[in-house]
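Can't paste images in this forum, so I'm doing it all in text. The chain is below; anyone willing to post the predicted structure tokens underneath?
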Amino acid sequence: DLLLITGAIYLTSGVDSPFAFLYSLAIVNGAVLLFANGAFVTAAGELGGARAGENPDLYWALRGGGGNFGVGTAFELELHPMDPTVFGGVMLRPAARAREIMRRYRDFAQHAPDALNADIFLAGDGGPPAIGIELCWSGARAHGTQVIAPLRAIGGTLQDTVAPVPYVAMQTSGDARFHDGTKFYGKAGFLTALEDTTIDALVDGFEAQPPGSVGVFMQMSGGAVGRVGPTDTAFVNRDSRFWLMVNSVWQDPADREGHIASARALWARAEGAVSGFYINTMADEQYARARQVFGVNYERLTAVKGRYDPRNLFRLNANIPPQPTMEASPPGGGP
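Text version of the structure:
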């Protein structure tokens, strides 16, 4: 069996997965990514390609710069050998222990091996408020129990479903929650550290909102993702240790304003700890902060944008404004 690290439409923005610690992001997965010759269409309608030996500036920008530069019609991606069964599931505990569990999770994550993905969430929209840790161990199956033992040792679980499971089943386990018609709003960003003050702000903010109106989700960063330099690709947030999202989920359109207000109120308490954003999960009002998204890569990205999309046709995104150029050349190098 082979593992494909991708998220299809989000490919050029980063694409994380439960295996990012082990194999890195889709944008940097091996030596082959992105568009074969003739599979990239510029704003001028020119056909070209982007890979390490072909239009390297565009190749660099597409690995993290999002949909700012053109349209891809075909992709080449590297696959990894993968056991289709992983050791994974969820440990649920009462939300009253959220501060303690988040601190224990943070300390555990600092030494987690690359083959382990551990997400933590605080939610109450599906029942009584609870804090959960979702685990996915993709290493040797016999070692999984030992690796997660410190998290099980915390005790007091309401539910523990961690066991050998087909990865496809685990990947689709949340589909029922986000069925057709479900409404969603979220704000997210990267954390270079998870301080006690940030944990307190998240828990206080969660408790201050109406039950079931908002949730908190965090995913570990690091591993192979952090072993790539911040300027090696356009994706700059290599020093992040956690990715944080505050979100709200509802069904009735009449609940929209209240749920969005709850998410924004909780986010406001923690936003000061955020360092950079993941453009696939930015709220519309965050798009104007592109300079903060791309950090030290911003100026180089504006130059690439000026060459391939000087009139900013592709602008309904975390937009990179084009740097003025004398002449915009198509990716094929022609006139």
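The chain has nine helices and 14 strands. Residues 68 and 218 are 27 Å apart (CA to CA).
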